[in-house]
From TrEMBL:
<feature type="domain" description="ApaG">
    <location>
        <begin position="1"/>
        <end position="125"/>
    </location>
</feature>
<protein>
    <recommendedName>
        <fullName>Protein ApaG</fullName>
    </recommendedName>
</protein>
<dbReference type="Pfam" id="PF04379">
    <property type="entry name" value="DUF525"/>
</dbReference>
<dbReference type="InterPro" id="IPR036767">
    <property type="entry name" value="ApaG_sf"/>
</dbReference>
<dbReference type="InterPro" id="IPR023065">
    <property type="entry name" value="Uncharacterised_ApaG"/>
</dbReference>
<dbReference type="InterPro" id="IPR007474">
    <property type="entry name" value="ApaG_domain"/>
</dbReference>
Length: 125
């Protein structure tokens, strides 16, 4: 990665109760990711890789082009935000991975997506 490219990832996840069926081991989570380009070079997100681990330790790998059907260009100093989802068989799990990006010079680099939790919120009264 060139000195010009610096990308920061922020993730917010939440449980989607209205789409989940706990009795059928179906737990739906939404996550919103903000990708900030803190560098001096424009970048494009080309592909993604996810490692999703459910509460039983079962791992699922997901990879593909872009995110939510797009390969966004992110200007220097700009940001891109999208929301997607994951379905687990357990009420908690984790996700982590990386994006493959390319800068204005045509140099490809990886941006790590730090591990984040997917968990049903428990309400204590």
């Amino acid at each position: 990665m060139s000195d010009l490219a610096r990308v920061c990832i922020h993730v917010h996840s939440q449980y989607v109760e209205s789409q989940s069926l706990p009795d059928e081991d179906r737990y739906v989570f939404a996550y919103t990711i903000t990708i900030r380009n803190l560098g001096r070079s424009n970048v494009q997100l080309r592909s993604r890789y996810w490692l999703i681990t459910n509460g039983n330790g079962r791992e699922t790998e997901v990879q593909g082009e872009g995110v939510v059907g797009e390969q966004p260009h992110i200007a220097a100093g700009g940001e891109y935000q999208y929301t997607s989802g994951a379905i687990l068989e357990t009420p908690m799990g984790t996700m982590q991975g990386h994006y493959v990006m390319i800068d204005d010079a045509g140099e490809e680099f990886h941006v790590e997506i730090p591990v984040f939790r997917l968990a049903v919120q428990t309400h204590i009264h």
